[in-house]
Design a protein that fits this description.
The protein is α/β, with parallel strands linked by helices and about 260 residues long. The chain is about 35% helix and about 20% strand. The chain has a single domain, classed as Metal-dependent hydrolases (TIM Barrel, Alpha-Beta Barrel), CATH 3.20.20. The chain has a ten-stranded mixed beta sheet, with helices on both faces.
Length: about 260
Amino acid sequence: MKGIIHIHSEYSHDGKVSLENIKRHTIDAGYSFACITEHVEDLRGDKLNRFIDECEKLSDDKFLFIPGVEFSYSFSHVLVLGVGKNLSYDYENWPETLKSFKNKYLMILAHPYKARTKIVPEIVDLVDGIEVWNSKYNGKNVPSFTAFQLFQKTKLNRNELLAFAGLDFHKYSHFGGPFVSVVSQELDAKAILQNLKDGEFKIYSRGVSINPTHNKLPLPVLFESMFFAILMPALLFLNKFLSKIGFNVPLKEKIRNRI
């Protein structure tokens, strides 16, 4: 059973698509579930409950929304999947909040090498996995070379650590990236989350297949990811140069949409 991870709807301040339209496009793409990860700071007051209610309302016997949130702490971002209305957290003490989530929810370190992101060791030690492939930042063909290196290094001391892939979806052009296929054929949040937590899934996109428990990439994927690890910083530098001389060309976005 196939699904997608790391999705933002209009409940997030930077999300452009409603949950209803996300469901429609996700079903059209052949997926059975979507793990929604709204920015937690956008769900204050009764908005969290409204978000959970709409996820439940739109789920049926053919499609499932799994609600989650995205926390940010010291420039690290953590996806927390499987939350409910009873979610309790302390805005002033993120480390203790995340510690209280361990073994309660599925936690994934998101886009660890996105610009202005820092790796916080105590956070890495808490999560179930690392998002080695974020198609918004890494493109839709191959995972991040640097994020996979972090995964390899961390897995030496934490063999249970898993590799994950997410879309970081905010708008329609972000569709078409990596998806996961879980072992379970039961359209049930607990069963799917347990599969994800146990590593009983695989990551796919455009002919690429990744086992979340393995710490090595297939050689063709490895070489291509190394190439784009060099290309993206070069595009960033070129973007800055062109901006200084009066040209505003979103080269990185164009390349990511093509790859």
